[in-house]
Amino acid sequence: MSQDLYNFKTSLIIAEGGIVYFGKSKRFKITVLSLFLLLILIMPLSHAMKISKYESQESNITMSARKVIGLQSGFNESVGINDNGSALINNNLIEYSYSTNSLLGYFAFYGGSFYSGTPINNSAFSVQLNSNFNVTSSMTLWAQDVFDVEYQNGVYYINIIDNLWNSTTSDANISQGLVSGKGTVSISGSQTYYYSWALNNNNIITTYATNIPFYLYAYMTINQSSNGYPQIYMYYEFRNSTFNSGWILYDKITVYVKSSNPQFLTGIQSSINSYFPYYPFVTQWVVGGAGGGSQLTVYNWNASMGLYYEYNGNFYSVPDAISLQPSIFTAGATAENVNQYYGIQEYYKNGIVHQIEGQNQQEFLWQPKSYYQLNGNNLTLYLTPPNGEWLITISGNNYYNQTFGQYSPISYILQPGNYNLSVTLYAGSMPIETFTSSLTVGGGIVNVTSPVNFYVDGFSHLSGNYLFNTPVNLTFPSIYYINNNSRMLFKYLIVNGQIVKSNTIILYVNANVTAVYQLQFYVTFPFELNGYINNLYQKISNGWYNEGTIIDIPAQTVYNGSYTRFVIYKETYYKINSSMIITPPFYTQYYLKINYAIPAEINGVNSTLVSDWYNKSTEIFIYSIYYINSTARESINSNISKIILRNPVIISVSVTYQYFINIRLPNGTISNWFNKGMLIKLPSIIYNGSLERYVLNQSNTIIINSTFNLTINYIKQYYVTIKLPNQTISNWHNVNSVITLPSIIYNGSLERYVLNQSGIINVNSPFNLTPSYIKQFYINVLLPNGTISGWYNSGYKLVLPSIIYNGTRERYVLNQSNEILIEKSFNLTPLYIKQYYVFIKLPNGTISNWFNYKTVIALPEIIYITNQERYVLNQSSSITVLYPIINETADYYKQYLVTINGIDNWYNFGSTIKLYESVPIYETLTWVGNYTLPNNSNVTVNGPLIENAKISTNITFVGSIAAIIIVAAIAGIFLRKH
Length: 978
Hints:
single chain, mainly beta, ten-stranded mixed sheet, nine-stranded antiparallel sheet, 3 helices, 5% helix
């Protein structure tokens, strides 16, 4: 079958298939066909689509932190092979993506018992090849190549349907003008438009009737028309034990939107702009309900399937797949599903997914992996998936083989040797994972001959002849020492007659190996020189020389650096047959370098010493002084005076022309030899004791260009110390100079010293002086009426004013000592009490005096003039002195003593008193005193007042009563008479 999968394109049969029946009578077949056609006509031909950017977040597998693949466990989803661009490799989740022009699905069915629910409600199921493809970066369509399988009375009836959906968004549709093919645009539900086609012959749906087992192949491919429109070709192939339909193209769909490169999409495709944030596209080869989003319930099941994509003209298994449709996907996926509990279990074996009845489980169907077996020189490579897009590279032992996409297992026959194996699983052009290993293929016998000890697989062997089985690792020492002065030097190996320069070799086949070495002796020379070695002119020095070497050393001068040389004065010849020391006839010379030609004694002879080569042990004596005349000479200064030459010498000499000079200073004369051109720096100061000195009064530099006598100009100075109040000034002053003392010396801003003597001093000798200064302090005294500021001598007594008047009605009275001793600078606010002048008129006199500010004056409440006259205060008794009070009259009212009937009371002047006492009618009351007044009279108080009530009989009233009595008596007498 696998060969058919890889080569199916070579046997495409373009046809429209008929109906194939197996068994039963013609009448029965017609009856079955009629019933089946009737069922087909009432069945929906669409296989419903889910469109999602993401759906349920449930997952029982830990996802990559970068993207959520969206696996789910145990849900009612389609079951089969779902490739969403995720692989489980070594239990690590790997993401990949690819696009392809062709997809191929294989399905084998061996029998089962099943039922599709609403809206199918029949013993049927579907097998669907589903994938999204890009038309443009913002338009995606979803294609389905579908087999519907129905079971009736022991016969399986198979029909072929395709669908095309707009999966750009959940509400996108396909209009009649967007696509063309054998099918038509239909309506799903009330709003979603899709394209569908059922394989037919003269408008009768084509059906295959078959027994089990049967095999179904679905193949979808995309290309472009000449005007750039995508075209989807829908193929199928049906097989059973007696029939093979071959490949049949049953529909070609054209999409009337121009596209640059339409391809089926798997995994995350970031170039499809309409699906940001780019959840994975899923490619499906799955089993589900028979249509309309129905659910398949499985009671018994035996099937197998495989899913393949095309790359570079070959079909490969998808890199990895999951069993259930993922919960998170981009664009379209099938809505048909399988019951969770009465469903399908899957397992993977030898590149095929096998299905049996059971509970749905979400899992990776396989983990991509690679391993090999090596039997002798036969390498067998095992790959999972075995028909995946594997790149296999084998290299080593002058061998290289690279194979892209062979079916596992793969065998290679390798020659003995070391090899590197690299196996990479691809998804389209994208490498997913690489597995690497190294291996060794052995076999053969190796005969080794070595004159020195050597190593075999790390173990030492003595010199001699040996036989070894391959593979064998031989290592021969680069140098083998016989003793300190002789050795064997590795030259090469002879392997099966061929020279091999390496001293290490790994052999896997039969071989004869001979190690070839060169005997060498160690030869020493007193120094490195030039000569001929076996007639080849070259440098000659200490080292190892091959046995029999001829060395010819001609006469020559050999330089050992810049300052030593060896003069070989005779040619000599030598042949190397052993270790030896070669010393040709020579003498040694050293270079004497001197910077100036000078007179000297060389080997006892007066001569001029110059830079040159001198023989070892030459004796040299250098002179130090050469006199020209009594006032001029040459001085030779050398770092060395006498030399016996035993090594190179650098002599540094300085030859100086000198003059004899006399210089007279204030304290003596300098007579000496001085170098020509020398700058003599005269002393700037010459001290004569500690208090007298001489200061240079000319240039301090003299250039020696000839002999001379010179008297130097100096100024005499005396050291003077002046102790001022704030410091001591000590300095040198020229003789007869004048020092001016400061008249005032400030010690800060508040203290100073004032000169109290002459400020001019003539300097004729050294002296110490303490001038007379008076210390003063700056004083600020803040008085109530102003500020006293100024400088005052220390110890001065400042007298403060006792009273300070501010006009005639305000003054300040000192409330502290009025004398202040000036001992420091200060700011002072003396304590003064503010007073105001108060003049208050009272009824009996005045209050006239100075009172402190805020003093409270208490006025008398009552002022008695006499014992019968007084004044009573008619205002507040307290007056607070806040300002001057002048000619203010206190408010009093006058009262007089009033005595009524002996009772004393004080009444205000001018008040009115009512004189009244109640008496019987037969009495009369009269008030007598200062005034005689009848009862109930008013009197005005104008002074002291005494009034007493005087009571007498009321004569009038008594006479009236007596008259009445008399009249009554007379009337009674007259009445009795009548």
